[in-house]
Amino acid sequence: MITDLEVILRLILAALLGGAVGLEREVHGRSAGVRTYLLLSLGSALIMIISEYLFHEYRGGVPGISLQVDPGRIAAQAITGIGFLGAGVIIRYQDAIRGLTTAACVWVVCAVGLTIGAGFYFYGCTVAAITVVALVGLKPLEKKLRRDWYQELTVVSADSPGQVERIQEIIDRHKIEVVNSGLGRDLEKKELTMTFLLQQRTVHPQRQALQDVFALEGIKRVDLK
Question: Degrees (nearest 5) of the Cα angle 49, 42, 36?
Fold first, then answer.
């Protein structure tokens, strides 16, 4: 049976490791910060300690009662419950999903807390360190990666002959692929509404094409989002 001093050590270490991961998230303005991660890791460690206590306390059984204690059952329920907490930080903004990394961190910190609570200090510290390094060290690399950007271009223009072709020529000139497109015509206002779903592999989306479309005669409104 572990001593009270050992229990306090595990709880403090779990809180420190969870807070270290939360600090990185807090610095980047994420909804779950230092306090959230600290409490999450601390609670997970306590759950694991209680699981171990129940196992050692009742592993011989209770006289007259058929009782089986599995120290992993409570921990498994903690992991399941953390899934709901992680889902709460995932949001959808327009066509982008935000919060996936934070949700993954919530899940990892729970695992770190359970690991420290079980007494595997080296493994818990290693995973926490790798997590912080991945969050801090890989972010500059992600910014340099060339990736596919999807943007929706909406153009409202006067209904003049060849206008669609001129806009398409600008898009082709900038080597932007059109994944999908749509065309609407308002006969009363004599306007064309053109929509293009654009795909481009680049470090950052280039907006020069937007300026070129603006420069066309008859253009009334251009939206790129």
Answer: 155
Backbone angles phi, psi at 59, to 5 degrees: -65, -25
Measured CA to CA, the distance from residue 20 to residue 113 in angstroms comes to 12
pLDDT of residue 92: 63
pLDDT score for 40:
83
Tokens representing 15 are 């809180």
Q: Are 125 and 111 in contact (CB under 8 A)?
A: no
CA distance 102 to 87: 10
Q: What three-state secondary structure class fits 95?
A: coil
What are residue 149's DSSP bridge partners? Answer: 200
Q: Which amino acid is at 17?
A: L
- CA 154: distance to chain centroid? 28
What's the topology of domain 147-224? Alpha-Beta Plaits (3.30.70)
34-58 helix and 100-117 helix, angle to the nearest 10 degrees:
40
DSSP H stretches of helix in 59-194: 71-87, 100-117, 121-144, 163-173
Domain boundaries, the chain: 4-144, 147-224
pLDDT mean by block of 10 residues, the chain; 225 residues: 84 89 78 77 85 68 54 72 72 65 83 87 89 81 67 84 86 82 85 84 65 83 80
**Token representation of residue 69:** 């204690």
pLDDT of residue 13: 92
